[in-house]
Amino acid sequence: METTFEIWKTSRETYLNFLEKYSLEQLNKIPEGFSNNLIWNVAHVLVSQQKLVYALSELPFNVSQELVEKYQNGTKPEGFVSSEELAEIKDLLLSTIVKTELDYSEGVFKTFNSYQTKTGFYIANLQNAFEFNNYHEGIHLGVMFQIKKFL
After folding, report:
1. What is the pTM of this model?
2. Can you list the alpha helix ranges (DSSP code H) found in 106-149?
3. The predicted structure's pLDDT at residue 9
4. Staple partner for 55: which of 14, 51, 83, 121, CB 3.0–4.6 Å?
5. Which residues of the chain have pLDDT under 50?
6. What angle, rounded to 10 degrees, do the helices at 2-21 and 38-49 form?
7. Could you tell me which of 109, 108, 103, 134 has the C-alpha nearest to residue 121?
């Protein structure tokens, strides 16, 4: 799991760099031909990780229900993300890693409900969830690298 967590940390650092490099206006801009923006992608991976790891383990989320509802699968940007929400998302990018690693090392994850993703992956256990999460975050980083070309 050490490598899985290191990959995840690297991914999250890249997300954080996007949030620090671009203005709030740029983060909120939806370029023509895209259905979302930079900030939506970042918040979406936060929520998705919580759903993949915590919800499937029947544990409470470490992000607000408001964020879950706003950024889960099937959502799209619904207005301008404020500087306050941006600050919250930035904080959660790294704090959720710390919390998840701590929970993992302390054996908090006791049960896991398998899940078939919309893309056809079968997540049978917690380790699969962590690995799929890294794959999912990589997909969204790719989208973000495309969006930035239009900012």
Report:
1. 0.95
2. 126-147
3. 96
4. 51
5. none
6. 150
7. 134
